[in-house]
Amino acid sequence: MIAIELSFRQLKDAVKQLSPSEKLDLNEVIWSEDITIPIEHQSIVNERVAEYKNNPEILLDWDIASKKLKS
């Protein structure tokens, strides 16, 4: 195996030069690893889903939320 050191920016630039098929292959390689979500994180998500189900009005429309984040 040949190791090449790239900055994240260089890696992104290299990925942009790949063909659509190569990008799909790369995506498959990246996501084929077993990714285990910690129980603590699963609990947080479950709590937030339950809170939304009890109070659906608490969610913001994405356009509104993104504008708030930018300001």
Verbal overview:
- The protein is built from four helices and no strands.
- With 71 residues, the chain is mostly helical.
- The chain has a domain at 39-70.
- It is extended and about 55 Å long.
- The model has no long low-confidence stretch (mean pLDDT 92).
Provide keyphrases for this structure.
mainly alpha, 71 residues
Topology:
Blueprint: H1 8-16, H2 20-31, H3 39-54, H4 62-70
Write down the overall mean pLDDT. 92
Structural class: mainly alpha
How much helix is in the residues? Answer: 55-70%
Q: Looking at the chains present, what oligomeric state does this protein adopt?
A: single chain
Any idea what the shape is?
Answer: extended
Q: Give the amount of beta strand, in percent.
A: under 5%
Q: What gap, in angstroms, lies between the N and C termini?
A: 46 Å
Tally of helical segments = 4
Report Rg.
19 Å
Low-confidence runs (pLDDT<50, min 5 residues)?
none
Beta-strand segment tally: 0
SSE arrangement, N to C: HHHH
Major sheet description? none
Please outline what is shown here:
By secondary structure, this protein is mainly α.
